[in-house]
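The protein record minuted underneath.
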Amino acid sequence: MTPLYQIKNLTIDLPLWGDRPYAVQNTCLDLYPNEILCIVGESGSGKSLLARSMMGLFPSKHVRASSGEILLNGENILEMSSDRLRSIRGEQVAMIFQEPMTALNPLLTIGDQIIEVINIHHPADGKDHVDQVLEMLDSVSLPSPREIYDAYPHQLSGGQRQRAMIAMALILEPKCLIADEPTTALDVTTQAQILKLIKELQKKHQTAVLFITHDIGIVAEIADRIAVMEAGQLVEIGIAKEILMKPKHPFTIKLLDSVPSIYPKNIEKEKYESRNALVVNGISKTFNTKKGIFKKSSRMVKALSNISFTLKEGQTLGIVGESGSGKSTIAKCIARLTEPDSGEIMIFNHNFLSLSGKPLRTFRKNVQLIFQDPYSSLDPRQKVGSLIMEGPLLHGESYKMAEKRMLNLLDTVGLDRKAANRFPNEFSGGQRQRIGIARSLALQPKLLIADEAVSALDVTVQAQILKLLKDIKEEFELTLVFITHDLRVAAQVCDFIMVMSKGEVVEYGSTKSIFNSPTHPYTRELFSAVPGCDFWLKHKMVQ
């Protein structure tokens, strides 16, 4: 079979101030019609830039291909004019981006944006294309296509926005679809639906799919072939099952070893004969979405309904569920970033909700959050040292003591002390998460809440951060609330699991009991949606 794409000896230069000379070096790769080729590797391995180069999308004039060819049906992408590139984008090759909220135009409805794609390539046919767009929205399993057509991106959920992006990419039936981490921030059930959708559409249209991901579970679920990249180089490529079962390159082996096991760890019960750290009793929260420019009517959303649980000192509780289940809302209520409508929260025998003013500010240092995206939660104008010292200084600690603690925390999270004089944008995603952890520990909290702290990290960095959290938890004798949509991660980190759906707790118990014999249908649905779970269990590729 003739390849649709042929990449021959491609080298893409990085600017002189980059951390290495090349983003991609001397890479050869073929992509065939009707196949799914997954490219895996750590952040910074060059996989996304390689994929974008296939559409002639380079991030700046400093990052360009210095040698090699990218042939699409024999025509070199690197030698195409701007007009020619525009003509192939969308019609011959289309891309699904990682974050649709930033890729979609917030000022246009979903329908208008998809029609815009059609009109750019077929401006003279005189059709309104509405029926064609509605049919495509229906084919990607979006509910009420007419409502989605008239909706703006912010009015859709993450999964719906991703489906809309897929509809836009497929509207002209391109020969190649490039998907750059399209399921990273989605919960497991939505993720499973998107993967199933991509596979079905690929078979229906005989499309060549290049799928970029750091999730080996997804690779096991959908890949025909796998290409492994490390530091800009293609280190291994082959049939998916052969790579997963018998990896040859040390880096591939390292990636597979970093995949969290679906089997939970054993709990050391004797550790937990201790006092209650957190008691949540009957917490409820309702949000009122008011009328606005884009909303014709107000709507009441019941985010939490009578939530109760107890967490003892030293325990780790995992809160799992789909987007919109209420797990992040309960975290914000515990940290008092959101005030619940009713109920009681006791933290180390203190009624947290009764505190206000100075007593609240004083006690609040005992409860700290690690956010999902440290890049958006860290002030880009402050250096790392100042960010970590900010909390202690606000609570009256001397500059000398705050600085000493900051340097010790950089040691604890595995960062060089010179990092104190650098800005957040100078670090990788994993390093920024370490900075976020150091900042949350600066006030010496007793209760730590990690809200999707590892969901956007590749598996090797994820494994490092999980080990770091485990070590820190033991060293600082912390109680941990761990929010995640990845059940494999929950299995390795958590002592107890609380499963949430539509603002309610549907199942609660020890990690081992819930993983071995889930009783609620929703919990069983979550387990069945874990990508690649059947493959790992069948071939015993678990730790």
